[in-house]
Give the backbone structure.
Amino acid sequence: MSTRTARRPAPPTWRNWAGNATARPLRTVAPSTTEALAEVVRRAAEDGLTVKAAGTGHSFTAAAVTDGVLIRPDRLTGVRRIDRGAGTVAVAAGTPLKRLNEALAAQGLSLTNMGDIMEQTVSGAVSTGTHGTGRDSGSLAAQVRALELVLADGSVLRCSREENADVFAAARTGLGALGVISEITFAVEPLFLLTAREEPMALGAVLADFDHLVRDNEHFEFYWFPHTDRCVTKRNNRSDGPADPLPRLGGWLTDELLSNGVFQAACSLGRAVPATVPGIARIAGRALSARTYTDIPYKVFTSPRRVRFVEMEYALPRAAAVEALRALKELIDRSDLRVGFPVEVRVTPADDITLSTASGRETAYIAVHLYRGTPHERYFTAAERIMVAHGGRPHWGKLHSRDAEYLAEVYPRFGEFTALRDRLDPDRRFGNDYLRRVLGD
């Protein structure tokens, strides 16, 4: 008889979308109901294990990393209730935004605003403060009307403006620190049309007219190509119709071939030969031409993103955006940095969510990216100094180096959030290294 001890298989490794965060949880589970999710949390508490829920991994941070119990969203999906009278939809927390958008459109409904990627789960997107751009309409979390939350002891808490309002104010951007979301109720409205106007502009012209461009459009954003003075601007406004969608070939050429296929090859070349980056940027800045089309919201707001990258984004007071962008351009122009990805700029109104990046102030977002595998530390560190100098708040799901001491300075309600965390999760059942850094312990 063999005396060898059979080796237990190593736990499966979880990786985020960008590949820069990994976890080896002791257990991986995929509950399909709120009751099953609550039982997972209760068992973890009995076993003294931490619990984290991971969506599709579109966060660039280690927010979902755990060596305890990892909850996967695959089975906790689907629309649960639509209330047309109240203008709401209740959806299971693991539902991808893509499936939600498609289901709503089939019912003649839509979210008011959304980001440009819809691969995330609804709970992951809400918890990390995912946003689009809007003069009057804010982040996904700002469109939440109620939450169902599994707490550290396995109990289930409902919260809204009328019920457990203090938890609702915090949990809409809760970072996974207060509990595991099992269901989200969003505000929705009848399906509408947006006319998208996309056109190149010079960076100097965009910055000179930034306030007017934001004021005069329901949804304005732009992408600036470093090493050039070229931008692509996007203005989305409601339309009475008729619908005039992009032709299939034209949309494929821009969104798939140029924005994904050719861009992928250009990024690979830039990573291998950094000296080529400025020339590639100049070509890219001229490659996309103006276009106008009219379609339902998710087909205008969202677009495919198949080129993998790492990203840092800061939320600044809207009035500081132009000065910060000029400083960022000067930084790149006078350095030997080679930046092959556009800088993205968006806006949102102020909201009343405790740790929302737009909490209490009109906000402009400046996002910097680099192709995955390209050394990003110098660029991100230098850009972060500029953002911090303007009172910037880092996006909770994107790379940054800030800690609880800094964040307590830029979030007036930071202490309110951490006090609530102490009450709801005193044993840090939902804690991990990322939360220790950004919230303290």
The mean pLDDT is 92. The chain is about 30% helix and 25% strand.
